[in-house]
Amino acid sequence: MLDALSPAPVLLPALADHGFLFATGIENSAPTILGPDGSRIRRDQMIECRHYDRWRDDLLLTREIGCNALRYGPQLYSTMRESGRHDWSFADESFPELRRLGILPIVDLCHFGVPDFIGDFQNPDFPALFADYAREFAARFPWVQLYTPVNEMFITAVFSAKYGWWNERRTDDRSYVTAIRNVVRANVLAMRAILEVRPDAVFIQSESTEHFHPECPRALPHAEHRNAERFLTLDLNYGRRVCSSMYEYLMDNGMPREEYAFFMRGRELRRHCVMGNDWYITNEHLINGEGHCRRADEVFGYDTVTRDYYARYGLPIMHTETNMDEGPRGDEAERWLWKQWSGIMRLRQEGLPMLGFTWYSLNDQIDWHSALREKRGDVHPRGLYDLDRNIRNVGRAYKRLIEAWTPVLQSEGHLTGLRASA
């Protein structure tokens, strides 16, 4: 059931000129991991995938394939040098070129990692420092309208402070709730800071869309908990009251009541928000009687799980991430692309306000089969282009898809369904 107190979206004027958003992204994950010698290692995918060396080529390839939008942003850890001191030199080169090429940036300001001087997502100073950073970016590039302040807030907290893979590498509930508090607070404060500069800014929350299936009757309470937990970051971000079990979980693990009230006062920001959801074959999980999860592959699929999220939040939707390895036959990624697109078209036909689609990322990625935890240098063929910037089969398929559907969506009006949600 939709929250009856939700403010109505007013995104129609803000997005009408952009058309349906066919996007890709430059992979800019930058968490820290534990190296073999016990030291912290920074995994900067923009370095490992050679974007800094080939950034002009990458922007041209984005336009060549037909995308009108690009998920992109400066690296937080290298741009934020210290409190109040930011080095915008790379952004000062790349963002004017994006504008010259007519590519709409969806600016990704924090992608899984923070500067060394902040440390990790347990640091309570992070939200205010990040808000200052976001405000300065918006003032420096006032023509930018679309933002993802913190990418995948749920995954950021889970991988850093629940699974113990990245950054603080913790596995206890109190650290996990602390990471959620700081990550979502940073996102909320950044949205408010950007709106001070650009009052018509739109925020596309790129968030992992998840579902947990019980393997047996004993798994039912575990699945119920995890299926409530998956909404925590978006509930707090959108000012939606969490269920009673999640409220107890937050309170028992260190969230002050006044901080919960802070999040509940954020409802007014919803009118600037698009619910971006990310979908991979790993997003559905099978949970056993002991509460342990393993991969379920696709059971429900993108469109079914997205309906659950839309029923909860009632916001316009953008499919903000997906990919698939090419596989031994070389066509698995292309088949996955068309499967995702079919899900979007089905939701659109049902009247859901689907604003865009993203194949992530433009180029192949490094070491994502281990979620960046092992620095092996393994290349995974998930991009529209390989790391030599040669187009892949899925890149050709995406280009055909964009060419075929752009005139259809323009003639129909890409915002079909938005009026119903407003």
TrEMBL record:
InterPro entries for this protein: GH, Glyco_hydro_1
Xref: SUPFAM superfamilies: (Trans)glycosidases (SSF51445)
Protein's name in the database: Family 1 glycosylhydrolase
